[in-house]
Amino acid sequence: MIDVIVIGAGPTGLTVATELARRGMSVRIFDKKDGPSGLSRAVGVTARSIELLASCGAGPAIRAEAVRFEGMVMHHGKDPVLTLPLNFDGQSEIYGLPQDRTEAHLIDALKAQGVTVEYMRCMTNYHLRADHIEVEFGQHIRVQGRYLIGADGVHSRVRATAGIHFEGRTLPGHWSIADVISADWPHRDRFAGYLLPHGDVAVVVPMAPDRYRVIASRDDALKALPVPLTVDKLIRDSSFHIEVKQAEAYRKGNVFLAGDAAHAHSPVGGRGMNLGIADACDLAERLAEGTQDGYEAARHPEGHHAIQVTERARRMLQSRGAPKAILMAAIGAIDHSSSAKRAIVHQLLAG
Ligand SMILES: Cc1cc2nc3c(=O)[nH]c(=O)nc-3n(C[C@H](O)[C@H](O)[C@H](O)COP(=O)(O)OP(=O)(O)OC[C@H]3O[C@@H](n4cnc5c(N)ncnc54)[C@H](O)[C@@H]3O)c2cc1C
């Protein structure tokens, strides 16, 4: 019987499997997809994640390929109103890399530990036995392990099977996204944010040389931008809803939740994937050392804090009327205070 069964080969599952194998535990990791993802969902990788992934080798590989963000420029309509450097102290650095490339480096690190992802395996159920867990993949395939980790995303089957509530709400409306190639966008190594009428917001984030992610809180991200962006190639566009939810428990017996299976929030601040990587590293270390009893107490408050910080920031960015006037006054004051800038960056990106 193996030590740990991991469901889901997104960034969280890949990280926990790699870290468990690196610590000498036997692990199998399954995903219902037919192969590695080509989707570039998360862009921002924090310095903390790179540090956490240093020992397995993925951290340096990610940093070598990623764009290092120098800062952020916020606009009111077309007018710049706030510039924020992001590299105050080396701890608040953030890098841009499409999520599929981050996952590719994690898959390489996992392979270096002698483990490969078993694709086209959709977990359908699990059963608790006297001294192990039996996981079902359809009617004919069963795998036994001592521990089960649900790293299977927002709609986690592991969470549902465990009967753990995912508490919170889905925000009304949807956001739009476009990934583009553009040779002449001026902000090559910094976020550009735009506060728009009616509480809308748009952001352009560098992902790779000449490649950018545009996100807006309304339809058609490219049309929402108040300034022209030359699109040499549209790589993809889509829309998404924002869920603001957290699992009421991160553990039930020997079944654990990590990453989006445990928490979901808006992409403001670029935290989701990074939070999942931190869950994964913490859980792997605890399982290897036999201190897993402390996992929930350590990680549930971190998830709660991230949800609070990102929701506060999202609500502020989307404010209108009097709160928007207060926001604009605050932005004016912050633009003249390097200590206020440092505090904001630390709040948004730490962890
Ligand atoms: C538009 C957008 C932009 C974002 N930008 C950022 C950003 O800049 N920075 C950031 O940190 N985060 C960002 N995020 C969030 C980030 O993408 C997620 O937090 C991250 O992917 C979570 O990783 P995960 O491994 O926990 O889950 P997922 O990436 O969702 O992976 C779960 C895996 O489980 C598999 N799976 C599901 N059910 C089963 C089953 N029953 N059996 C087997 N396999 C199963 C799925 O196929 C999937 O591969 C963004 C998200 C969106 C939508």
Can you tell me about this structure?
The chain has 351 residues and is of the alpha+beta class. It has a domain at 2-68 and 95-171 and 242-317: FAD/NAD(P)-binding domain (3-Layer(bba) Sandwich). It has helices spanning 11-22, 47-52, 58-65, 99-112, 157-162, 221-224, 272-289, 295-317, 322-334, 338-349; strands at residues 2-7, 27-31, 44-46, 67-68, 71-76, 79-85, 94-96, 118-119, 125-128, 133-137, 141-150, 166-170, 175-181, 190-195, 201-208, 211-216, 233-240, 243-247, 251-252, 255-257, 263-264. Strands 1, 2, 8, 9, 10, 11, 19 and 20 form an 8-stranded mixed sheet that branches. Strands 6-5-14-15-16-13-17 form a 7-stranded mixed sheet. A hairpin with a 4-residue loop joins strand 9 and strand 10 (133-137). Helix 1 (11-22) runs parallel beside helix 4 (99-112), helix 1 (11-22) packs parallel to helix 7 and helix 7 (272-289) runs antiparallel to helix 8 (295-317). The chain binds flavin-adenine dinucleotide (FAD). The site of flavin-adenine dinucleotide (FAD) has 33 residues, from helix 1, strand 2 and helix 7. The site of flavin-adenine dinucleotide has 33 residues, from helix 1, strand 2 and helix 7.
